[in-house]
Amino acid sequence: MAATTGESQYRDSAVGRFLARLASTLKHMARNKVGFAGFLLVLTILLVSFVGPIFVPEDETVRVSQIYKTPSLSHPLGTDSEGKDVLSQIIHGGWPILTIGYLAATISTIIAVMLGSLGAFLGGRIDTGFTWLADMVLTIPQLPLLAVLAGVLSLNSKFAVAGLIGALFWPTLMRAIRAQVLSLKERDYVESARALDLGTPHIVFREIAPNMAGYIAINFTLAVTASMYAVVALTLLGLVPLSENNWGVMLNLANTRGAIFSKDSIWYIMAPIAAIALHQFGLVAMNRSLSEVFDPRLRRGS
Amino acid sequence: MSEPAGVTQGAGRNEVLRVRDLEIGYSTDRGRVRAVRGVSFDLEEDDSLAFIGESGSGKTTLGLSLVRLLPQSASIAKGEIVFHTSSGGELDLTDVDNETLRRFRWRECAMVFQSAQNALNPVMRIRDHFADTARDHAESDGVLKGRALTERAVECLRLVQLDPERVLKAYPHELSGGMRQRVMIALGLLLNPRVLILDEPTTALDVLTQRAIIEVLRELREGHRFAMIFVSHDLSLAAELADRVATTYAGRIVELGDVEQVFYHPRHPYTVGLLDAVPTLAGEQQELSSIPGSPPDLIDLPTGCKFHPRCPYATDKCREEDPPLIEVAPGQTAACWHWEKVGSDWEARGGERHERDANRA
Amino acid sequence: MLRKVASSYLFRRLIKALVTIFVMASLTFFLIRLMPGGPVEAYIANLVTQYNVSHQSAVQQAGSLFSLDLDVPVYQQYLEYLGNLVRGDLGESLVSRGVPVSEIVLNYLPWTLFSVGTALIISFSVGVLLGLVMAYKRESMLDHVLTNLGSMVSSIPDFITGILIMVWIGVQWELVDITAMRGSLSPGIQPGFNLTFIGDALYHASLPITTYVLGTIGLWMLTMRGSTESTLGEDYVTVAKARGLKERRIATAYVGRNAALPPFTQLSISIALVFGGSLIIEWLFVYEGLGYILYNSIQQRDYPVMQGVFLMITTMVILANLLADLLYSRLDPRIRVGGRD
């Protein structure tokens, strides 16, 4: 009887602590203007890319007379090499890329968290083995490997691409997570959990993980940055035959159709670049402010 | 300007350093920390003066101020620090430009910090440390380099009882803590400074290494014409190496005199407390006393004598008026209204003390 | 003595490097040879169906092209493959018949090495220098501008920076002639150790190099800035001031030398990124290096070349990392195992 009561108290306190921490994190983030601005930027881009297409129709009409026009009221971002509206292409062109990017980041983060925390916690041969694996994957130049695999395997499913990227980008994250877990391992509440003999999975997921939440968030944003790099690179190179038009494809077309060498096509080129770059900036800004929140040594003032 | 009592009128012999009414403070969030509140003393050519006190007594700040290495938040509020350089000039260290200060440092006055664990550049060999020091002080005496430099470096290392062959080509991490401390002292002697300041030279070292360092310092004292200033909380250090002792409390000197005067005939309750707190290794177990209470908050100091909250002799006068340094014997001063009573109490316990000393010998 | 060598830092790194190359080579072997529907099988099937070649003959052709003996069991093929690898035999190109892959690889390797190597050196040196200056002038206008600029520019994917350079500096503002800068060498210039050759090579490599530098310099600036800040608080810096050393000497030999060590350890990440990025950057600028060839071979399904180039790129990254480690051990005396020099 006493044991179960103790257990549930424990559970509440871990969850409770997590929620309290989440609330204070958001409060702290709001204080850091740059980070918050980045957060809003990312949110806006995500909204426009996923919700936008519902409201804005895709422009399929070919207008030969209106190739590479500069912005006007009817075409706020000008037109492309076939006279199609650029703005609608931007709005519609985000979600394929973003989906793969965030999916890949999720896969990476999950692998990194699992390998990193289990390795650090269990130590010994398992830990050494995981670290070796991470080092090896890290040494391999990632883009060429992705390109070769994409070429050989002819992927056309978003999940496949995301999986491929996710499977290669976890080592840096895993190292960071592992370092964090190693330091947390020595803390008091872990010692007491051990003393109460609550079992490895409980300790890892109930005690350590909530404290890692912030750290995982930081690493997740980094993972998204890296994955987005990979996705855009692959689509730019034309190695991922996706059916929809997306930002990467726009750049690919700009290159293959010679848009880069034409002076008029500047809007067509800059639009996807701006979208991609802004998204990256937002993530980096968020990442910096998150780092400040979770690593007090970096905090300015306060 | 009349000289305050107790300051050695040593103008006849070779005076090296003259400090008058020095006041130093740090600005912090809570307010201004008055770390040094009016310190005056003289130092002569081969004098050896020890500043003994608890942490927070201002002794380290004092030491740092002599080479102007105080942190950004600190400032010299008033007072003067006059140094007589080897070329015969006079330097007021409170009002000097950066380049003059740079040349002054180490060449005229070298400060060896406590715990030399990280005092040496990890990526440079010891011999390069000597070379750097010599190179950047070339304008003072002409360039010391090549064979002359090596010979001088070897000489300095031998003075601190280190094997020059092994040490010169070593990297700092290859030497033990005690060796590094000695290297710092050797480096300090390289340019033949007039004053060597040692801040807690033996703290953070094991007992055997402490012994070695003290031996080294003692030998240096005997052979060479430079003045030493020690800053420490360790009374025994003063006993071994100093000619004169100044006990410091709450930013001021509370007792100053020859080492024998202060150790055998203390006249300030704080000094008495310090002496009582030192146990003897030999002899029968005696009651150890520590001074009750703790050092005052330097931002919000008590009124009158700063020691009164912890003093067994405190009276109303002590609570109201901060005593100046009063001459209690030729060459000895103490900042206490009741120094006579302190003295007579001490002498009364003299019988016990002589017995203990006899046991110690 | 042997024990000392075996436990030495560098020896262990060497072993790790060789193992990684070995693993990579094996991975490529299995990918190319064993995957169902993989390149070898696809090639054979293609020959049989499209060119009406007999199965036996097709297998033979495939074997010679891929440098594999397809009649013997797989593990034997694997061993032969490794054996060939060690001898430098990477098979023949599918597209350019008769041309050994090793020849192709060696032709294009120097250009990538040149551009990537130069870029890494420039990026690191300038980045570290800027980082030092930024830390010394903390909170000043220069510091704020450089921090934000560095952070922003580095977060942009390097190929996008490349496109931006092409579009703005090349096309819109016409500052450089990007068409003329294509290729790794102007026609007619002979390789040789003279100024014309080197100047021309630099001319053609300048855009890729600039792109690589812009993509990585931010990392060095920010890392060095942080590292310098903490080094400035170290005891030996204060003691150096107490020793009356000149400000310049302290900044370089005491602060700079020590603060540059942590950024140096990040070099391995940069090396992998830049070598990897060569795939897309060389394609973008039509710079004829390994990345360019890799892209072409992927497009053309020229598997032996793909395999060979990929292995070469990986090997280069590993060797570059080894070199960086070696350099680091010379720079930081504390990690030299064995003490005595």
Secondary structure: helix percent of chain A = over 70%
- In DSSP terms (H or I, runs of 4 or more residues), the helix count of chain A works out at 12
Give the SSE order of chain A as H and E letters. HHHHHHHHHHHH
Low-confidence stretches of chain A: 1-8, 297-302
Largest sheet of chain A: none
Approximately how much beta-strand content do the residues of chain B carry?
15-25%
Report the average pLDDT across residues of chain B. Answer: 84
- Topology as H/E string of chain B? EEEHEEHEHHHHHEHEHEEHHHEEHH
Number of strand segments of chain B: 12
Secondary-structure class of chain B: alpha/beta
What would the principal axes of the Cα set say about the shape of chain A? elongated
> Helix amount of chain B, in percent?
25-40%
What is the count of DSSP helices of chain B, taking H or I runs of 4+ residues? Answer: 14
The order of strands across the largest sheet of chain B is 6-7-8-3-9-10-12-11
Shape of chain B: globular
Account of the 3D structure:
The complex is a heterotrimer of chains A (302), B (361) and C (341). With 302 residues, chain A is an all-alpha fold. Helices cover 75% and strands 0% of the residues of chain A. The longest helix of chain A is centred in the C-terminal third of the chain and has 38 residues, at 200-237. With 361 residues, chain B is of the alpha/beta class. Chain B has 14 helices and 12 strands. In chain B, the strands form 2 sheets. Chain B has an 8-stranded mixed β-sheet with strand order 6-7-8-3-9-10-12-11, with helices on both faces. Chain B has a 4-stranded antiparallel β-sheet with strand order 2-1-4-5, with helices on one face. Mean pLDDT of chain B is 84; it is low at 5-12. With 341 residues, chain C is mainly alpha-helical. Helices cover 76% and strands 0% of the residues of chain C. Chain C contains 15 helices and no strands. Chain C is globular, with a radius of gyration of 24 Å.
